[in-house]
Amino acid sequence: MNNKLFLSAIVPLASLLMIAAFAIPFGYLLYQVHHHTSLSGAGVIVIGLILLIITPTAAYLYERSTEK
Question: What letter would DSSP give residue 1?
Fold first, then answer.
């Protein structure tokens, strides 16, 4: 019973830390692209579009390769 209580506290905390570990550097990257390159807002849009296309494509290819 004690293990379930421990997991119910650790799992949300771990997921929050993993999201923050991705979001903070990604936000910093977008800020740097927007404010310190000649790409400005267009660069941020291009990065977003790349993520929008690559993420589901990678998930599809991974799913397809693991279901065999």
Answer: -
